[in-house]
Amino acid sequence: GSNRWQIVQTFDSLRVPENDKYLVLSFHFYEPSLITHHQAPWTEYSFYNGPVTYPGVPVDSASLAKLNGKEKDLIAAMNGAYCKDTMYAHMKLAIDKAEKLGLHLYCGEFGAYPKFIPKETRLRWYEDICSVFREHNIANCHWCYKGDFPVVNEDRSPNELPAILSRK
Q1: Is residue 32 within 8 Å of residue 96, measured between CB atoms?
Q2: How would DSSP label each residue in 37-94?
């Protein structure tokens, strides 16, 4: 994987040993982070507790206008329009590198912090990212099982994610 948390934007500088067909290229994917990390306490934008939506622009203009200067600038800088095609466009650098080298591609981390995001918004994001993985034969692993980004409920019963993650 590349540097900076294995984000796909750094794949252009990834140096891969030549002629080793036993390698797997790996990346992590949490875009748009205004959706995937909405109100996650460890982020620099955890202060934003207004509504978010996906697909589209995560923070609407009315909500953005309510923020002060620095907060508004931070959210605005991250607030592009996102959809399935945008996710694919972000992953394309990694997809192209894997194809060029004849190697498999693996998304070793993805997920959405569920505590403060509307369930429908989160599920639409999961539908799209899993669709991109399937369409481009990208192996993947959800982060995590029962922690901050769970695929099970507190009582360890499955939540709605296992069905989305396992669709063919």
Answers
A1: no
A2: TTT-TTSTTTT--S---SSB-SS-HHHHHTS-HHHHHHHHHH---B-HHHHHHHHHHH
Separation between Cα atoms, residue 128 and residue 21, nearest integer Å: 30
> What's this model's pTM, rounded to 2 decimal places?
0.92
DSSP assignment of 3-41: HHHHBGGGGGG----TT-TT-EEEEEE--SHHHHTTT-T
* AA letter at 53: T
- pLDDT, tens digit, for every residue of 88-138? 999 999 999 999 999 999 999 999 999 899 989 999 999 999 999 999 999
Torsion of CA 160, 144, 22, 2, to 10 degrees: 120
> Tokens in use for 135?
């369409």
Helix (H) or strand (E) holding 106: strand 104-110
Cβ(73)–Cβ(79) below 8 Å:
no
Are 164 and 127 in contact, with CB atoms under 8 Å apart?
A: yes
Q: At what angle do helices 84-101 and 119-135 cross, to 10 degrees?
A: 30
What does the buried/exposed string (b/e) look like for 87-120 if buried means 16 or more CB atoms within 10 Å of the residue's CB? bbebbebbbebbeebebebbbbbbbbbbeebeee
Under 8 Å between Cβ of 43 and 67: no
